[in-house]
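Issue: ligand-bound run for zinc ion - logging full I/O for the record.

Environment: standard queue, default settings, no custom constraints.

Inputs:
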Amino acid sequence: MIQLMKPVTIQQLRAIEVLDSRGNPTVDVTCILADGASGQAIVPSGASTGEYEAHERRDGGARYGGKGVLGAVQAVNEEIATALIGKDATEQAQIDTRLLELDGSERKSRLGANALLGVSLAVAKAAAASYGMPLYRYLGGIQACTLPVPMLNIMNGGKHAADSTDFQEFMVMPIGASSFREGLRWGVEVYHALKKILTQRGLRTTVGDEGGFAPSLPSNEAALDLIVEAIGAAGYEAGTQIAIALDPAASELYQDGAYHLTTEGQVLTGAEMVETWLAWCSRYPIVSIEDGLAENDWEHWQMLVEEIGAKVQVVGDDLLVTNVDRVLRGIREKACNSLLMKVNQIGTLSEALAAAALSQRHGWTVVTSHRSGETEDHTIADLAVAINGGQIKTGAPARSDRTAKYNRLLHIEEELGDAAIYPGNDAFRTQRG
Ligand code: PGA
Ligand code: ZN
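Outputs:
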C-alpha cells in the first residue's frame, strides 16, 4: 500500500441489513471520515462454502428463515464503531488488526466475519475517497494497471442450479483478446450463441445463481461440447482465442472418501477424479481447474499438480479459503499453483491481500473472485486491478450482480487509457515464470 501523509479519522460507522442476489439478508456498512469522505461496502455470501472459511454470522430463528444479520449489524453499530471511531482510516493494517483483537475468536464467530469485512472494506473505500483516488490506485499504487482476464461462468450446475450438471461452473476465458473490453464482448457473444444453441436443442435457458445457463444434460461432459460449439458459433477459435476454465467445486461431491457424480450415477476415487481431469484436459482447451478435488483430499491435489500443474492452472478455493496458513501448506505440499481470493472467506482486507501477496511471491497466480450470493457492490473489480492479479471470476456477463463488476472494470480500463494492460494468455505466467 502506498504511504500517505494525511491522517483521516473515522467519524461514523453505520451498518444496515440489505439483500443479496439470492434474496438473503447481508451486511451493508458505510464509513464516514472527519473530512466528509465516505465509503460503502456490501458483504457477499457463498453457497458452496469451504469448511475452513471464517464464520458468517446469521441470527437464526424464524425471521428471514434464520438468515437475518441483525446481530452482525448491531456489532458494527455498537462495539466496532466504539472501538474504531477516531482511528486513522488510512492505517488499514491497524484497523484490521484491531478488528481481529476485538472479535477475539478463532474463526471470527463472535462479532461475525460479515460484520468485520463490511467495516474493513468500507474503511478502505472511505480512505481512498478522502484522497480522491480510485480504490485500485489507493491499494495498488502506481503499478496497478493490469486488467483481469475474465472467467465468465456461462454454464451453472452443482449447488448453484438444481437438476443440472454435478460440476458447479463452466467458464470461458477470452485469452486471445487485446483488451478487457474486447474480451468481455467475446464472452458475451459466446454466452448468446450458447443460449441460441440450447434453444434450438429444446434445452432449458433458465439461469443459475451466477447467471450461467442451467440446462439438464445427459452428462457433465456434454456441457463442454456445448461450450466448444458456442465458441465456434460465435466466430472464435476454442483454445487460442477463448479457453475454458472449470470450477467443479468437488468438496460438494465428496462423501465417505469418494466423489459422487449423481447425474451420471458414478462414484469415483480421488485417483479416478484426477484421471477425469487429465482426460478432459487432453480433449478440451481447459486452462484452469479450481477445486477439482475436495478440501481435505490434499493427496490427490498433489497428484493433480504433479500430473498437469506445468500446463494447467490448479486453483485452490475451498482448499485454501484465502487463509495464509492454508496457502503456506499448499505451497509447501505443492497442492496447487493458484489462489482464489475471496475476501469474505477470511474476513478482512489485509488478510486477503496478505494471502494474495504470499501466493504471488511463490510464483502462484491469484484469481480474484465473487461469491454466488452477490450484490451491486463492485469492490472486487478494484481489488483485481490493485493486486495486478490478471484474472477475475465474477459470473456470467448477465444479471446486474455480476455485470456490476465487469462494468466497473470497463470504467477502470477507460480511466487507465494507454497505461491499461490486458494480459491475455500471460495471465497464467507466474511471477517467476
Ligand atoms: P460459492 O461459489 O460462492 O457458492 O462458494 C463460488 C465458488 O465456488 O467459486
Ligand atoms: Zn470455487
